[in-house]
Amino acid sequence: MKISVIIPVHNGAQTLGTCLEALTASTYQAYECIVVNDGSTDGSGPLAATFPVRVLDLPGGPFGAPCARNRGAEAARGEILLFLDADVVVAPDTLARVAASLTGTTEAVFGSYDTTPEPGFLSQYKHLFHHFVHQSGRAQASTFWTGCGAIRRTTFFAIGGFDEGRRPWTCEDIELGYRLRAARHGITFNKDIQVRHLKRWTLRALIKSDVFDRGIPWTLLMLQRRAWPDHLNLRRAQQACAALVCALLVAAGCLTPLPQLVSLALWAGLFLVAAGSWSDERPHFRLDAWMGAGAAFLGGATAVAALWQQLPGLLCLPGVVVVGLLLDRAPAAPQWLPRNAIFNAMVVAFFIGLFEVPFLVSDRLGIVVSFGVGLIVMVNRRLYGLFMRHRGVGFASAIMPFHVLYYVYSVAAFVLGVGYYLWRFGPASFAPTHLDPRAAAPQTGSSPLLRQWVRQRE
User: Fold this and answer.
1) For the chain, N or C: smaller number of CB within 10 Å?
2) What's the predicted TM-score (pTM) here?
3) Over the stretch 408-434, which tens digit does the pLDDT of each residue have?
């Protein structure tokens, strides 16, 4: 079977070359590659033209990934459409595994990111988290993923392609998966299809992606389709844990006097900014102007608040961050200092404050915090076990505040999504309705070629 690899790109020259180099090393030769240049201004199109691929330019863009993928599918000649992101690196046998997976009643297949370490702490966390979520999923999936996902060409057109009318909201791959399942097409998750992700995450990009590119759009999608799935990030245990963590945070806030609460918030924010900017490569702190100013403010405010309120446990973290920043400015790191010594010191300083300060405020607050930490570790013991196996105890420990943040903004994204849905469609929109599998992809959002193909099949 011939595979058409479709790669949409918008200003992705930094990773596109590596992506295409890996593709040309594939052991499966019955493929073509179509790079859809969606209005790039960084030379992505000319870069792609240096490889044995077809470059499809979309002048006047960017039009968004759903449009770019649909245009690539229209130009494809293969029986299988394999969608890849421009920052993904396939293994030599990825295409062969994709072709072998699309047998029998399986109409679509997707994989996951692998565990290849990237220099940044947040990138390692995000990629390993994604790897765990997908690898823990069921083989018979109920959604789809375009990071590395394939579908039969006839099925793709029959179902209406990607919905281009969802902008500015995303999740077009998940929405396509829901339509595939509604039409009773089989979707398989193949754990052996694993690709490397080259994206370098920052704290701002992480929150924006999880809230505005995934959380809110997925909430809207669930409300529109009257579906409450129990898979991937939305497993019932994770939903319950998110609600319970938020309830424990509210309880901790009610038990903490306002001055100490502000101090703890500043201290936690400092750790999130400092650890979130950490890289295994020098300079270790990758802070832009805004994040650097934020770290300076949080560090200074935390130190002042700790001295004023006599909370010595909060002083360790600002001190470690200052030392780390000074060492970053040195021409070379001291030979006697291990590479991740500052990072591990930040983690130790964080846990000193986490378990010391709440008990200084009140015994009840200390118990609530300890219970919350134990709850997170117990419910997510397999996830933390994965972190420990691949990155060590220090890394797994540093994940905890980011995991709590993940639960908090996931709940916030759900609330915002429900609020937006009520504002946009009104309470009457919650009335039961029956959807045709293709109704979720409005005709106005599809291309003329897709609509013509569907009419011919009908």
Assistant:
1) C
2) 0.88
3) 999 999 999 999 889 888 776 665 554
